[in-house]
Automatic annotation (TrEMBL), chains A, B:
Gene3D superfamilies to which the protein is assigned, alphabetical: 3.40.50.2300, lambda repressor-like DNA-binding domains (1.10.260.40)
Domain HTH lacI-type, chain residue ranges per copy: 1-55
UniProt-listed PROSITE patterns: HTH_LACI_1, HTH_LACI_2
CDD domains assigned to the protein according to its UniProt record, in alphabetical order: HTH_LacI, PBP1_LacI_sugar_binding-like
Origin organism lineage: Bacteria, Bacillati, Actinomycetota, Actinomycetes, Streptosporangiales
Taxonomic superkingdom: Bacteria
Pfam families reported in the protein's UniProt record: LacI, Peripla_BP_3
GO molecular function: DNA-binding transcription factor activity; transcription cis-regulatory region binding
Keywords recorded for this protein, A-Z: DNA-binding, Transcription, Transcription regulation
Name of this protein: LacI family transcriptional regulator
Length: 334, 334
DNA sequence: GCCACGTCCTGTATCGTCACCACGCCAGCA
DNA sequence: TGCTGGCGTGGTGACGATACAGGACGTGGC
C-alpha cells in the first residue's frame, strides 16, 4: 500500500498523489478528488519513515526531564506537548534520572537525528560540559545549570523568586526562617541560586544567617522534604518559617511538620517555589512563587522552532529568557 | 556523513560497517576496530530515519493518556518509560485530553507506522468503537472502557478494589458512606465499575443505598473533588465516610472537607483509589487501594512487545490482565 | 588433489517518499 | 502567427540504511 498503488488506482503519477497529500497547489479539484477517493478506498497511510528520510525531518522533538512523575515536570510536559502540537510537532519524553549520563544519552539521541530538536532540562550537566552542547542541531536548555552556554536557555527567576519568598515570610512576621535546600552541585543550579536569594533577603532585612537553619537534602522529593522538616523540628534550632526549594519539597515539609506536632501557619509558616497544582489543594494550602509556566513552555518551544527553521549558516546568537513570576499567598503563610 | 563515508574511510564495504554498528558476528576484531576508529574520527551517527525505512520499525512506542500532568498518569508513564527502555524502546507521549477524538488521533498516528506499537489509555472510546481497534498493528488498551475487544487489555481491579475500599470504611465504623464518582459514560468505564464495587459492599453489609450520598463529578481532578466534598457537606445528607473514585479526587476532597470544617478522620473517613505517591504525604495521609503499578506497566509493555514480534499471520488471541491489589490504610481512615 | 564447510566480507537491490526540473497546454498579447 | 507565462502534471533520482545472495579464502578430511 504505497503512494504508487494510489497513483495507479487514481490514474495519476505518484507525484500528484504526493501533492494532494501535502496540500500543495497546482492540482485540479477534480484530480484531487479522484486521488482522495483512491486513498480512501485503498486505506492508504503515508509511511512516515520514508518521508522522514526524504525530508530530513521527523516531526518529533525530544523532551528530556529528570523524572516525569514529579508534578513539576508533569505539568511542564503537559504544557510543552500542547504548545508543540500547535506547531505540528510530537513530543517524545526521555527520563534522565537527574543524572549527567542520562542527559548525555538524550543529547546523543538527538544527534542521531531521531528528533528535530531537544528540550533538555539540565540537572546533572554543568558549566564544565558546555562543550558537549556545542552541537549543530537545535537544543534548548530548560533549567539553571548552564549560563552563557552555546545554546538557547529558558530559565526560572531563581534568585529573585527565592528572595521574594523569603521576604514574604519576613513580612508575615517570621524572624527565624529556615531553608530546606536541594543538592548544590555547582554555582548555577536551582538549589544554589535559590539559596542565594534566601541569603539576600536575610541580608536585606538585616537578619543574621544561621547555618543551623539550613537543611540540605539530596533529592527534591516529598519524602526528603518531610524528613528535613522533622530534622529541623527535632534539632531544637528554633524556627518560625521555612522556605522550601520546591513545592514538592514543601508539600513533604508540611507533612513532616505535622508529624512533629507543629502547626502551619500558627507555629511555622511555609512557602515553596513552582506553584504546582497540588499546592492549591493541600491542607493547609501552600504559598508559592509562581513562574509563568505556560510562557516558559511556549518560549522554549518557540526557541526550538526558530532554530529548526534556521539554515545551517545563518546561526543566531544564543537567546536567554528568564520567566517573570508572582507570589501566591495561601494558608501556609496566613 | 553516511555509512558510505565511513566505509570508504575504513576501506571496507558499507555492509561491514552496518555489521559492526549492529553487533553482528563474522567481523574480524581488527576490521571491527578499524571501522570503529573511522566512525569515531568522522563523528558518524546512524541516520535513524533511513534505518526505520529499511527495517520497517521505528524503535518507538506511543503512550496515549488523557493528561500527563495528572499524578496517576505521570507515575504510569514513568514506569512505562523505564520498562520500555529495557526493551530498547523509546516512548512518545500523546495527550488525548480524555476525548474520543484525541484517542482516535493517537490510533491514527500509530497506523501511520510512526510507532511500532501503541499503549492507549482509553476514556473516550467505548464498546461501540470496538471496530476501530481492529487494526493490524500492535495496540494494548490500558483502562476499562473496552472489554472483549479485539486487542490486548491491561485493567485495574476496579470493582473488587472499590468493594474493598468501601468495606474498609464500613469496618472502621462508618455507616453512611458517600461516593464521589466520576463521569459514567458507559457500562465499563472506571467510574461505573468502581460505583458497582461501592454498591456491592453496601449490599454485602446489608446497608441501604442512598442516592443523596453520591456526588458525581465531570472530571477526575482535585478541583472537582474539593467541590464535590463541599457539596456533600452542605447538602445535609449526613455522612461519616467517603470513597473517592481516584486518589486525585480524594486529595481534593480532603481539601473540601477541611473547607467545610469537617475533620478527617474524626468526623469523616476518606479513602481513594490508585495509591499515588502524593497520598502518603498529605495531611492527613490518604488510605487507598494500591494496584500493582509496576506489574501493570510491565505487563502492558510485555504484551506490546510480544505483539510486535508476531509474524503477520500467526496472530494470538487477545490477552487480558487484571492487576492484583492491596489496601493501604493510612491516617484518613484511622 | 579435490571437495565441503565456515568465516569474513562485498555488490546490488530495494524500502516509500518528495525535490527538482521538464513539459504540455492554454490564455493573453503584440 | 508566434511568444510569453502561469498552471497542472509527470519522470527521474536521490535520501541512507539493510536484506539477501554470494564470493574469496582458509582449513581439514579423504
Amino acid at each position: 500500500m504505497t503512494i504508487q498503488d494510489v497513483a495507479k488506482a487514481a490514474g495519476v503519477s505518484p507525484m500528484t498523489v504526493s501533492h494532494v497529500i501535502n496540500d500543495h497547489p497546482h492540482v485540479r479539484t477534480e484530480t484531487r478528488e479522484r486521488v482522495l477517493r483512491a486513498i480512501e478506498e485503498l486505506d492508504y497511510r503515508v509511511n512516515v519513515a520514508a518521508r522522514n528520510l526524504r525530508t530530513g525531518r521527523t516531526g518529533t522533538i525530544g523532551l528530556a526531564v529528570p523524572e516525569i512523575d514529579r508534578p513539576y515536570y508533569g505539568q511542564l510536559a503537559a504544557e510543552i506537548i500542547k504548545v508543540a502540537a500547535g506547531h505540528h510537532l510530537r513530543v517524545a519524553i526521555e527520563q534522565t534520572g537527574a543524572s549527567r549520563e542520562g542527559e548525555l544519552a538524550a543529547l546523543a539521541l538527538s544527534r542521531n537525528r531521531l528528533y528535530d530538536g531537544l528540550i533538555l532540562s539540565t540537572v546533572g550537566l554543568g558549566p564544565a560540559d558546555t562543550d558537549l552542547l556545542r552541537v549543530d542541531h537545535p537544543v534548548v536548555i530548560l533549567g539553571e545549570r548552564i549560563f552563557d552556554g552555546p545554546v538557547d536557555h529558558v530559565a526560572m527567576p531563581n534568585s529573585a523568586g527565592a528572595r521574594a519568598a523569603t521576604r514574604h515570610l519576613l513580612e508575615r512576621g517570621c524572624r527565624r526562617v529556615a531553608l530546606i535546600d536541594g543538592p548544590q552541585r555547582g554555582e548555577v543550579d536551582v538549589s544554589s541560586l535559590r539559596y542565594d536569594g534566601y541569603r539576600e533577603a536575610l541580608d536585606e532585612a538585616g537578619l543574621p544567617f544561621d547555618p543551623a537553619l539550613v537543611a540540605p537534602i539530596e533529592q527534591l522529593t516529598m519524602e526528603r522534604g518531610a524528613a528535613a522538616a522533622r530534622r529541623l523540628a527535632g534539632s531544637g534550632a528554633g524556627f518560625d518559617g521555612v522556605f522550601c526549594v520546591t513545592d514538592t519539597v514543601a508539600l513533604g515539609a508540611l507533612r513532616g511538620l505535622a508529624d512533629s506536632g507543629l502547626r502551619v501557619p500558627d507555629d511555622v509558616k511555609v512557602i515553596g517555589f513552582d506553584n504546582i497544582a497540588e499546592g492549591a489543594y493541600s491542607v493547609p494550602s501552600l504559598s508559592s512563587i509562581d513562574p509563568d509556566h505556560a510562557l516558559m513552555a511556549g518560549t522554549a518551544v518557540g526557541f526550538l522552532v526558530k532554530r529548526m527553521a534556521e539554515k545551517g549558516a545563518a546561526r543566531q546568537a544564543p537567546r536567554e529568557f528568564v520567566s517573570p513570576f508572582s507570589l501566591v499567598a495561601r494558608e501556609s503563610t496566613g
